[in-house]
């Protein structure tokens, strides 16, 4: 496993041919669909337990597509599960930034191994909830894309080429089909969880360089210690640390507590990445400190004052009285002179 960095996950949102193919992307991978899929928010939890890593992923999209595929890299052959989206609600609650208010006054109004080969070999295929999951092995991008095409995943040439670096490093391809209950992907993909073995905790990002829009990402990491993460887009803004703190089981957060057999450290990062700047995956490393942290967000409260302000009325009124007195005095003098 040391030499193998990752695998690729393909998620299809229909059991029919995706044609014509329209490519898009989310932070962790890429979409192929019969209509545009615009990622509104991608939220992921990475759990690190020794050499075992799990990624729980929720992707919200804006689309009416009924046929789609989703490509995501993960290290080694993965065990696939359907996840509970309520977990992310609880993660958001415990990591939410503090707020301070400032007034501004304005005037106005399955786990296993596989040997790489030149062709594409199906090493596993199972049904999990609403998903039909097939895992492939192979290092030849043409063989893998041919298998995907034969099995109703028509990939644009640009996206097929983006798979080559992963396959050259011995990545797997996990193809997952989905039939959305709503008839489209307007509500996003059902949350999914993948577990695999790796010596290097990672969150895959390189396929996202094929995207057309800025890629938003909220990344949680649950580990024994606070973590640092690498910037997948070095020429752009680095993801910002939002929260770091040790968690213990809490009855108010049952889904999150189920992951905490012992107290663990949660670290949260938020960022947006321009596709043309993405050159690497997110590398996860232990931080030099376990110091807790919570971001503080300033909320500006606009307060509108009356016009003219009360403190201006007195001097203005006094000036008017003086002006009137002077005018009356001058008028009296002019009449006497006459």
TrEMBL record:
Presence of keyword Hydrolase: no
UniProt keywords, alphabetically: Membrane, Signal, Transmembrane, Transmembrane helix
Transmembrane intervals: 312-331
Keyword Protein transport: no
Name of one Pfam family that matches: DUF2330
Signal peptide boundaries: 1-27
Domain of life, source organism: Bacteria
InterPro entries according to UniProt: DUF2330 (IPR019283)
Name of the featured protein: DUF2330 domain-containing protein
Lineage: Bacteria, Bacillati, Actinomycetota, Actinomycetes, Pseudonocardiales
